[in-house]
């Protein structure tokens, strides 16, 4: 069996006395597109924070790229797009190209927009999200869906192997959500980037991901999304760990 990119084993986590993760185990294989779903407060953000090393591991073990998370230094292997990424307003004084360049800063502290040797990386990332023609447009003048693409470009400019996105479609209108999922599928299929998409919109997500992981303090389901879809509402509610009714969308 090939080594997974991420191997989470028997992880439990508390905030003070409040147990939010209990004996959680799962693996993320290279090349997969994982939908991490669960109701509000089910521990999704906590597990992501543990993977990113923002929250300290209390119990169990996590290996990232074959190394215990405590010893893993993230040199661009894992990239993250937060739900709050969409925080640029119309007055923000940066072009799309400059925003993508900000993703390089962590790798190259002395980076500045005039350094030609990094420009090709920025244009490559813009091309990968089909936003080349907007390189010199002010970020605040782009639509929500276009800004979202720029944030993805910023996240992939360091060529990560694993990209984690937290509720990236919040506030994006329905038509753009469809385009957005298509873009993610292209990044996964064509560039081979392993994806973890955190969402509580279980209806939309199951049609796009290769693996579905339902978390509600513990792992309630981890497997094939189409097998999950074929179950009755009642069975799925049990696995999801919460009352649910799947809303399916036509694409
Ligand atoms: N820093 C913290 N201190 C104390 N409690 C916390 C902290 N962070 C999260 N919690 C609590 O832990 C539980 C799990 O939170 P978490 O954010 O991991 O869930 P989530 O599934 O991401 O929720 P949502 O979908 O609402 O973002 C919740 O009850 C939350 O209130």
From TrEMBL:
Alphabetically ordered keywords of this record: ATP-binding, Nucleotide-binding, Transport
Xref: InterPro entries: AAA+_ATPase (IPR003593), ABC_transporter-like_ATP-bd (IPR003439), ABC_transporter-like_CS (IPR017871), Metal_Ion_Import_ABC (IPR050153), P-loop_NTPase (IPR027417)
Q: Which Pfam families match?
A: ABC_tran
Q: The ABC transporter domain covers which part of the protein?
A: 6-241
Any one GO MF term held by the record is: ATP binding
State the CDD domains in the record. ABC_Metallic_Cations (cd03235)
Please name the PROSITE patterns in this protein's record.
Answer: ABC_TRANSPORTER_1 (PS00211), ABC_TRANSPORTER_2 (PS50893)
Family stated for the protein in its record: Belongs to the ABC transporter superfamily.
What protein am I looking at? Zinc ABC transporter ATP-binding protein
């Amino acid at each position: 069996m090939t080594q997974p990119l991420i191997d989470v084993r028997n992880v439990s986590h508390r905030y003070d006395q409040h147990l939010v993760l209990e004996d959680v185990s799962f693996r993320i294989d290279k090349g997969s597109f994982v939908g991490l779903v669960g109701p509000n407060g089910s521990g999704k953000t906590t597990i992501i924070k543990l993977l990113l090393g923002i929250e300290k591991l209390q119990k169990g073990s996590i290996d990232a790229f074959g190394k215990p998370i405590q010893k893993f230094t993230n040199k661009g292997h894992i990239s993250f797009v937060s739900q709050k990424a969409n925080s640029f307003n119309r007055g923000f004084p940066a072009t799309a190209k400059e925003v993508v360049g900000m993703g390089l800063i962590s790798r190259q502290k002395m980076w500045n927009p005039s350094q030609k040797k990094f420009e090709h990386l920025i244009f490559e990332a813009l091309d990968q999200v089909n936003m080349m023609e907007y390189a010199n447009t002010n970020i605040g003048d782009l639509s929500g869906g276009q800004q979202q693409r720029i944030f993805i470009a910023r996240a992939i400019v360091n060529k990560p192997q694993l990209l984690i996105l937290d509720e990236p479609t919040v506030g994006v209108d329905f038509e753009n959500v469809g385009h957005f999922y298509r873009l993610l599928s292209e990044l996964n299929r064509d560039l081979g980037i392993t994806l973890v998409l955190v969402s509580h919109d279980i209806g939309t997500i199951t049609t796009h991901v290769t693996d579905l992981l339902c978390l509600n303090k513990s792992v309630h389901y981890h497997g094939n999304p189409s097998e999950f879809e074929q179950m009755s509402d009642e069975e799925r509610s049990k696995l999801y760990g919460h009352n649910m009714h799947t809303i399916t969308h036509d694409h």
